[in-house]
């Protein structure tokens, strides 16, 4: 799915991700749906805040494998802005905890180069 690199695009991506989970049979307020909603919100917000290139969109892909692994990928247009997990932060900070949430909720996550331009930040949840 392709979205504009804006807060509105990130919000729409989160809503559609949760809707897709419903079509796959996951309850709206279940553990998986809540984790996916949080992870997608954080990854899309990062794509908009740190991976934005004017005129370029970001992409969200979700796949549920036969073995129950749910893979989420968010691609943006900035290859040089690789996310870094900051383990130290000030409790007063309002930002900087997104990847900590992703790491806590996902079973695996990482970054890959995109074939075209940019990067893909991905995570997997064992459902």
Describe the structure using short key phrases.
5 strands; 127 residues; alpha+beta; five-stranded antiparallel sheet; Heat Shock Protein 90
Description:
This protein is of the alpha+beta class. The protein has a single domain (2-126), classed as Heat Shock Protein 90 (2-Layer Sandwich). The chain is built from 3 helices and 5 strands, in the order E-H-H-E-E-H-E-E. It has helices at 7-23, 31-50, 98-105; strands at 2-3, 58-64, 69-76, 108-113, 119-126. It has a 5-stranded antiparallel beta sheet with strand order 1-2-3-5-4. Helix 1 (7-23) runs antiparallel to helix 2 (31-50) and helix 2 packs antiparallel against helix 3 (98-105). The longest helix has 20 residues, at 31-50. The chain is globular, with a radius of gyration of 14 Å.
What's this entry about, in short?
This protein has three helices and five strands. By secondary structure, it is of the alpha+beta class.
């Amino acid at each position: 799915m392709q979205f504009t690199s804006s807060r509105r695009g990130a919000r729409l991506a989160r809503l559609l991700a949760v809707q897709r989970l419903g079509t796959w049979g996951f309850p709206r307020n279940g553990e998986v749906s809540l984790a996916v909603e949080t992870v997608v919100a954080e990854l899309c917000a990062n794509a908009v805040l740190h991976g934005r290139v004017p005129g370029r969109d970001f992409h969200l892909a979700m796949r549920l494998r036969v073995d129950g692994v749910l893979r989420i990928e968010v691609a943006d247009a900035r290859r040089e802005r690789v996310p870094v997990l900051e383990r130290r932060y000030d409790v007063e900070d309002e930002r900087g905890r997104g990847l900590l949430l992703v790491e806590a909720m996902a079973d695996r996550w990482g970054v890959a180069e995109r074939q075209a331009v940019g990067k893909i930040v991905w995570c997997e949840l064992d459902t």
